[in-house]
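Task: complex structure prediction.
Instruction: return structure tokens for all chains below.
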Amino acid sequence: MFDDLSLVFNYTLFRATLRASTPILYATLTCILTQQADILNVGVEGIMLCGAFTAVAVSYFSGSWLLALLAAVAVGTVIAAVMALAHLRYKADIFVVGMAVNMLALALTRFLLQKVLGTSGSFYDRAIVPLPRIHLALLDGNEVLRSLFNDYSLFEPLGILLVFFLSWLLYRTVWGLRLRSVGLNPLAAETAGIPVFRRKFEVMLYSGVVGGMAGAYLSLGYSRLFAENMTNGRGFMGVAAMFFGGGDPIRSWIGCLIFGFTDSIGSRLQSLGLPPQFILMIPYVATISILALAMGRKMAAQRRARSALK
Amino acid sequence: MSQPIVVMEAIVKDFPNVRAVDGGRFDLRAGEVHSLIGENGAGKSTMMKTLYGLYAPEEGRIVVRGRSFEALTPAGAISLGIGMVHQEFMLVRELTVLENIILGFEPRKSGGRIDFAEAEGRVRRFIDDYGLHIQLHKKVNAISVGEAQRVEIIKALYRGAEILILDEPTAVLTPQEASRLFEILKTLTASGKSVVFITHKLREVMALSDRVTVMRQGRHVATVDVSATSIPDLARLMVGRDVFLGVSRADGGAAGDVVLSVEDVFVPSDKELSKLRGVSFELRRGEILGLAGIDGNGQSELVEAIAGLRPVEGGRIRLGQGEIQNRSPLEVRAAGLAHIPEDRNARGLNRAMSIEENLAGMAFRRAPLSRGPLLVVGALRRFARRLIETFDIRPARPEAPAAHLSGGNAQKVVVAREVDEEAQVLLAAQPTRGVDVGSIENIRRELVRARDRGTAILLVSADLEEILSLSDRIAVMYEGQITGLLDAEGADEESLGLLMTGGALP
Amino acid sequence: MNKSSTLSTLVTVVVSLLFGAVVVALLGHSPAEAYRELFRGAFWGRFNFGGTLERFVPLLLTALAFAVSSKVAVFNVGVEGELYLGAIAAAWVGAALTGVAAPIHIGLCLMAAMAVGGAWAAIPGALKAYWRVNEVCVTILANYVAIYITSYLVGYPLSAGTGVPQTAALAATARLARILPPSRANSGLFIALAALLVTWWIVHRSTWGYKMRAVGENAGYAEHVGIRSRVTMVWGMVFSGALGGMAGAIEVMGLYGYFLDGFSPGIAFDGMLAALIARNDIRLVPLLAFFLAALKAGSLGMERFTGIPKSLVDAIIAMFILLAAMEGLFLFRRGARGKEA
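Output:
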């Protein structure tokens, strides 16, 4: 039993957690951006999937990871623009738009996989150039240090930087203050002379950029192939982590780490023949509990404020 | 006094189906407090939102410091030095006080960063100059209403306001907070700012302002110096009427036993002045008790508390033999209560349903409209036909959607459903608000008829003429308490107006 | 649904199909042939038509589940989870019980599935009714929890022990008969159609349905006439969850004969979209569910005979949903400002 546990919990868990949490982190950042403008972007899954496909296809044909990344970002932005147009201009329910985009992405990538790359299921080729990895030669000597800190894909540390950058943007800059006010009280923003519609549209586009990056990382950093439905719910996990953190980048990142952690433990337990499911459901149950408790507290506070007895 | 810095002339503003302001007039001089008074719906707020640029008027002219405009925008108004503190605060509750104040006009450092130090310095200056104590780093949802209002005032000053419009600022304040606000306004005018003060509380007008403009039904009635007027004069100008819709007040004979008694009741509310703090009265069989008062003084809360739609934190409500406070609406209705709610769109009707389904809102639970869990469609239709005929509801098609009903017919559906319950007690809240003249007569006649059958009716209305023409006794509510109880014979508009605006009878 | 929105839905259908035709033409195929094969693939012969029916049943039930919850103003994104839980409950009852007459056994399986689905849906319903917790968040999350629960059950206590994560086969008495062999269409179709009728009847012809609609359409009105809106909301969700559970049970009892881990590729999400396009009108739900089922089934035939990938049809469906969601897009001037201020 003790041997089993040490197989599950050891230093390699650090890296596994970080690696598993990164795709979710990019998805979370995608929906935090829009959530700050009070738009629930459930289309992350679809944006990511299209980004992942574009990245693999462009990388395969051009041999350049940079071009692949740019193409994925461009595709993500275009999809987000369509969503923004449908939701903001044509008053479509954002939830329906998001679900339709997910469905469209699944079908379209499957279709293009067949038509452009001539295969179905998944596509792998040595000609696919992945995102670069960061190799520090001085860590090579020590097995533990090497495992912990070396050879990360470019986007893994970048994702963490993005968390802090977004946090800074939201809480320290004029742009962030105005964006948050648009999401929290559009009328107050309007009376302060802030163009609400334009702000929402703008932030949807940025969300498309991050969503495209998420896809590119998934297919060129996390793995080096494209497979049908390869996002496999990670977009929704991103939404869940965003709920977990209440739209705050750092707290949502913690949510992502919990997802990555439970995912890593889960797969190790499974390889030992132990049921991983209860571990895997922890982040979801935790998020539901957090949501419920927060609302319960809010309602109690409201009741106190309304009382006639004080 | 100097030249006026704001002149508004012949302002006309239409909303769908209603002309909110019709030939509105207003002018403001530097350094004065100018009160704008009138009943709810008199067009006060609309006038001032036009000045602040939230509405574009259909006709008229706005002159600010000699520059003439057909219409303004909020950004334009702000740059002209106009600031407004809205009735509903325009604050982002989840942000800090400081962030709220600087929103849209943030001092910047390089890289688009907010210069919080600079911002705080600027805001502190206003705090010190005008004695506006606020906590800059708390979130707005953690501060009191009075403090939030001071935040709104500082926000306007921070944006460079020389002209400050306050829309019913005392409606949300306790008396202590209100007197503090008056101190602040005096400091402001002493330093040359001008204040527009929208209210319907005449004591405040007399205590605070230099001049006062009275509006009624969208029209300008009078502008007078406060030194040349009195509370009774203003009350008469404010509630004076043009038309008298007559249902002659046939006496219902002697009132019978007490059927509803409210004893020392405390009820919560979102608004400070709408909280009920110790309300007591009795309602007798076969009488109409009119409850007069300006909207927002706790009448709605009282009605909802009796109907079981709002919790009661203290005191007792008896209906017939039993106590009904904090019972479910269904239990209260079963004990013998029917209720015409004040807002027919929020409560009275379900616009997504048909006319017959709305009429059957109570009766669908019983035979013959239902048998067990089954609705009996034929019985439902017969039931609806009968009420449609009795109450002259048009269109007379039971299956027509309620969304297609005009205001008057929609209200007749509500009245028909509730009156047909033949309950011991009928709460009638604003039963003729927004209803055409023909339907008004129809509805009033039904109320009197119900009274004559022995129903005890609590009639809540902001329309004094309605109260005076229907009631046997009249109670007046002000700031969550009953401030007067009179016999209908002894009451007139002047004395009621006085009680409603916080005055006392001589 | 009023006339102008029916018209705009029709326009949306036509635009989506035209778009598909253009893409087909660009790929060098004949659009007429593609659509003919699509039609044949959905309706021609027992196998093809059976394929449409087989897809129609879960789509109908999950769309119905979503429409029912929307009657009490709850946006139940959790039907997928209810479907999974209902499926495994039916699989367990179907395999564990033996020696019971078929109608009773089938009834017990369905009841177990509906009870489990309903109980599961009551949780987000109660959280929304009593604590105002956003049900979209909760149900999205609850889906994962439900799927993990079934995954655990099928992997461990209920595993058939074959290496594949599936339960033991159901007893023959718990299987639903195939009605159009060799297709997998089964007598679950009649159960689903009965559920449709009963649901319509409950919502529009019973006192409970009156209460549900009142709560969903105007909670203030509902409270005013003495309807306990919170209780009604929770029971509305139980109703919805029971339909979701029934959908899962029929998949197990009619299609597979056992519970397979992760068997649903998001059926309930397709159902939800069908309900959304039908604007939750129970009379239109079966039409849209059938339309989507026929497109999905027909695309297989189209792929086989023309070489056009069936994913193109899925893309067209998604396009159609996207366009249908944009209320402002094909709204005709006359109806556009119908709402009274």
